[in-house]
Specification:
The complex is a heterotrimer. Chain A is of the alpha+beta class. Chain A is built from 16 helices and nine strands. In chain A, the strands form three sheets. A four-stranded antiparallel β-sheet of chain A has the order 1-2-3-9. The longest helix of chain A is centred in the N-terminal third of the chain and has 30 residues, at about 95-125. Chain B has one domain (about 75-325). The N and C termini of chain B lie far apart (about 60 Å). Chain C has one domain (about 5-160): NADH:ubiquinone oxidoreductase Nqo5 subunit (Beta Polymerase, domain 2), CATH 3.30.460. Helices cover about 20% and strands about 25% of the residues of chain C. Chain C has four helices and nine strands; from the N terminus they run αβαβαββββββαβ. In chain C, the strands form three sheets. A five-stranded mixed β-sheet of chain C has the order 1-2-7-6-3. In chain C, strands 4-5 form a two-stranded antiparallel sheet. In chain C, strands 8-9 form a two-stranded parallel sheet. The longest helix of chain C has 12 residues, at about 110-125. The relative contact order of chain C is 0.16. Chains in contact: A-B, A-C. The interface of A and B includes residues 12, 14, 123, 128 and 193 of A.
């Protein structure tokens, strides 16, 4: 009783953000605190809200392509993929096999790049200043590979309705294979210096435990969900593109703490490398773009398409009205649902643990705000 | 000249020593800052500063000039006296321990018979500077950093004292000169490895260096207790921190690594300083490497570590030492 | 891994609602449910009891039309649920009545908290029973401005954006078919 009285008198509010080194983006979390304990964290969004959904309603569907990359700029190709697949499903366009393979290879490369950035940023939040530079070094290789064929380093706009815009060449295949070999050797370094580090384990074990029921109530997806033991991955559960042809596993954790989410993402990177290798081995010949009309008319009715972005399940929901401009486009982003559990998860934890949990959720604020 | 001739030679010697030490402090801060940035760079697979001077040697000089020229921002609604005094409080007391450290057989400003206790007591004044800085900044983040700093410093002073006591038990003296003298045959690090380890770890925690740098934890507290300081105030904090590190490393060298002992050099009584500095900078190199390698511990884990592991181990160490000395 | 939806529908029992099976390859979801306002919470509870997770809650704006009960507001709410263990997506849509309020499903699915706040920001739909209906994406000053509401000239009727309409300006669809 005395202790709660003490807590009552010592409550204060602390603003974490919107400019803060460890909220990855412009996110404000209003913390009601008592000493070092967080009593009630309330995220405040909307600082990067650019109203992409209204933009989709005011231009033809082909004009929305660049917007898809700006929502999640760290892992932009799955966003591209979801949107072009949505329009292809709506308009009934067939995509050539070679284009599908190229889409899978580039999406998985982008997923690896996104996870490498997450790794560096998470460890930077925990106070280790060095792994981010190693991660960025590896990421630079991926960015160079993708720059050769797409022309951009970050906000890719590479896919088109009916395929991809440019074909890949032998240089791409050779450099990707070299990169895969290199990254596998680098994983050994990460394993020894980070994963087996006792300080790191103490900062992440048993912290931020998400139970499967909590994940269901909040609609969490992606590595955050897989860390809690539920093996849900859109690539296996609701296969799209040519994913059924590849042999890969879905890593799951057991407890749902930060360490499990970390391990899931590390192993996911290895699985992505497996997919890329298989795709490179089986790459078929053929055209990379189907013939589509210049002005794609979207038939009336609604349509939904889900892909697995780096952070979870990304769904596009489109209502068409017969013209080439969407009547309504809803983008369901994974980080939105992942973060909404913070008020329940962060009750009564220490401030450094909150930083650790936020890092392990892998949030990108512009995709939340759209 | 007449005024000088009537002053006692001891006073003249002290004044010259203090002047040399203060100028050495700034030079040391420059060298250590450069060393830190270069080592950090190479650990992180990049070259570090390369632009200014040959391989960036003049970088810190240029940075110092820049910091001198910056506007001293005083935030609204702070306690002006406290805010201004805090950097001075952080920088001034660190000069004093250097007066008693024996750099070489004949190079010591003053040999107090209670030299070790003097050093420890001066080290605790640093905590007050952090507290004044955190309170005077009128900023919740700074206050957080200051509170953490106080708890951390108090917790880690005890292992430092206890590990020093182990050495004192073996030499029967607090005077640093005699402790070094007693290491002629064998350095104490071989006789007291546990105490050495505990002293280095607790010393890292006392100086708020990573992995124990919670008071200035960048990613949680946006620079903690020195958030609001800019320009020279900020650099005084950092000169204070680097000097603290130097003191920790020098005391470790004096107590455990044999001070200025080494292979014989001409003018050995004065040039023993070369061996001394080699050992000190080797330890500093280790401390800097540790900073850039490990993540940060959580605060309650830190205090747990101090009270539940370091203190019992150092107590057991003293017990064993006392028993062995008696035999 | 995608199972046959036929086996699944038997143990879900959504047939107390106005549910129609849809072609997954055409639409991306398996079941479409036309809900009344008072059925929303029962629908969400049914989904939660059978292990569905909430994908999103959103809305879209069409022309208000005259029905037996009065004029509708023109807004429609859309709820989508899916499963973790099998492939089955359900979409429920409800026409928002003229008082612009829908029941909130926050106590069943806490994730709906943010989705409903966003829908209120963008469309002005009020959710009864929501614990904290403050602006989420918009600022506090812009609370009363709802960006996604369409202007008069851009509004189309519900039939024109439904699957039953063949092409724009073409023949009518079934009135009874509550699909979109």
């Amino acid at each position: 009783m005395l202790e709660s009285d003490f807590q009552e008198r010592n409550r204060f509010f602390l603003n974490m953000g919107p400019q803060h080194p460890s909220t990855h983006g412009v996110l404000l979390i209003v913390l009601e605190m008592s000493g070092e304990y967080v009593l009630d964290p309330q995220p405040v969004l909307g600082f990067v809200h650019r109203m992409h959904e209204k933009m989709a309603e005011s231009r033809p569907c082909v004009g929305f392509m660049p917007n898809t990359a700006r929502m999640d700029y760290v892992c932009a190709l799955p966003y591209n993929h979801g949107y072009v697949s949505l329009i292809e499903r709506k308009a009934g366009i067939e995509v050539p096999k070679r284009a599908e393979y190229i889409r899978v290879i580039t999406s998985e490369l982008n997923r690896v790049a996104s996870h490498l950035l997450w790794l560096g940023a998470y460890l930077l939040d925990l106070g280790a200043f060095t792994p981010i530079l190693y991660g960025f070094d590896d990421r630079e290789h991926i960015l160079d590979i993708l720059e050769d064929i797409t022309g951009s380093r970050l906000t890719y706009c590479y896919y088109r309705f009916g395929g991809v815009s440019r074909d890949i060449d032998d240089k791409f295949v050779a450099s990707t294979r070299a990169f895969i070999k290199r990254l596998r050797e680098r994983f050994v370094i990460y394993e020894k210096l980070v994963t087996k580090n006792i300080i790191f384990i103490k900062r992440t074990e048993n912290i931020g435990v998400v139970s499967p029921d909590m994940a269901l109530r909040y609609g969490m997806t992606g590595p955050n969900l897989r860390g809690s033991g539920i093996a849900y991955d859109v690539r296996k559960n609701e296969p799209y593109s040519v994913y059924p042809e590849f042999d890969f596993e879905i890593p799951v954790g057991s407890q749902g703490d930060c360490l499990d989410r970390y391990m899931v993402r590390i192993r996911e990177m290895e699985q992505s490398l497996r997919i890329i290798e298989q795709a490179l081995d089986r790459l078929p010949e053929g055209p990379v773009r189907a013939k589509v009309p210049k002005n794609i008319k979207l038939s009336p009715g609604d349509c939904n398409f889900a892909v697995e972005a780096a952070r979870g399940e990304l769904s596009y929901y489109l209502v068409g009205d017969g013209t080439s401009t969407p009547y309504r486009l809803k983008v369901r982003v994974p980080s939105y649902s992942n973060l909404s559990c913070l008020p329940e998860l962060g009750r009564g934890i220490l401030l450094p643990d909150l930083v650790s949990i936020l890092g392990s959720f892998d949030l990108v604020i512009p995709e939340m705000d759209r | 000249m007449e005024t000088i001739s009537i002053l006692p030679p001891e006073l003249i010697r002290m004044v010259i020593a203090v002047i040399i030490i203060i100028s050495f402090l700034f030079i040391n801060a420059i060298m250590m800052g450069y060393l830190e940035r270069k080592i950090a760079g190479h650990v992180q697979r990049r070259p570090g500063p390369m632009e200014v001077g040959f391989h960036g040697i003049l970088q810190m000089v240029v940075d110092g000039v820049k910091l001198l020229g910056k506007e001293l921002l005083i935030p609204f609604n702070v306690d002006r006296t406290l805010f201004r005094v805090a950097p001075l409080l952080s920088f001034t007391p660190v000069i004093l321990p250097l007066l008693v450290i024996p750099f070489s057989e004949k190079l010591q400003a003053r040999d107090l018979s209670l030299g070790l206790i003097f050093i420890v007591s001066m080290g605790s004044v640093n905590v007050m500077a952090l507290l004044v800085a955190g309170w005077g900044s009128n900023n919740k983040y700074s206050m957080f950093g200051a509170m953490r700093a106080v708890a951390q410093s108090i917790a880690f002073e005890i292992p430092i004292l206890l590990s020093m006591l182990a050495v004192v038990l073996m030499c029967n003296t607090f005077s640093l000169k005699e402790i070094v003298g007693a290491q002629q045959k064998i350095w104490f690090v071989f006789l007291q490895p546990v105490a050495f380890l505990i002293y280095v770890i607790a010393g890292v925690a006392e100086t708020n260096r990573a992995p124990f740098d919670l008071p200035e934890a960048e990613s949680e507290l946006t620079a903690g207790f020195h958030t609001e300081y800019s320009g020279m105030g900020f650099s005084l904090f950092f000169i204070g921190e680097y000097t603290n590190m130097f003191i920790v490393a020098s005391v470790a060298t004096v107590l455990f690594l044999g001070g200025w002992h080494g292979p014989n050099l001409p003018y050995g009584e004065y040039l023993g300083i070369v061996w001394f500095f080699l050992k000190v900078y080797f330890l500093l190199f280790l401390l800097i490497m540790i900073r850039w390698t490990y993540p940060r511990v959580r605060f309650d884990q830190l205090l747990n570590f101090a009270w539940k592991y370091l203190v019992p181990f150092s107590l057991v160490n003293i017990l064993i030492t006392a028993v062995l000395v008696k035999l | 891994m995608p199972p046959t939806t036929k086996i699944f529908k038997e143990d879900i029992l959504f047939h107390e609602f106005n549910a129609t099976e849809t072609d997954y390859n055409q639409r991306g979801y398996h079941l479409e449910v036309a809900l009344e306002v008072n059925q929303v919470r029962k629908f969400a509870q049914k989904a939660y009891d059978h292990g569905f997770y909430l994908v999103f809650v959103t809305g879209f704006h069409v022309l208000p039309e005259e029905t037996e009960e009065g004029t509708t507001s023109g807004l429609n709410g859309v709820y989508q649920f899916a499963r973790y263990d099998r492939l089955y997506r359900i979409k429920g849509h409800v026409s928002v009545p003229e008082d612009m309020s829908l029941p909130s499903i926050c106590d069943i699915y806490q994730g709906a908290n943010w989705h409903e706040r966003e829908t209120r920001d963008l469309y002005g739909v009020n959710f009864d029973g929501h614990p904290n209906l403050k602006p989420l994406l918009l600022s506090d000053e812009d609370q009363d401005f709802h960006p996604l509401l369409k202007e008069e000239e851009n509004l189309k009727s519900l039939k024109e954006v439904s699957w039953s309409a063949e092409v724009p300006d073409s023949a009518e669809a079934d009135e009874k078919d509550a699909s979109e």
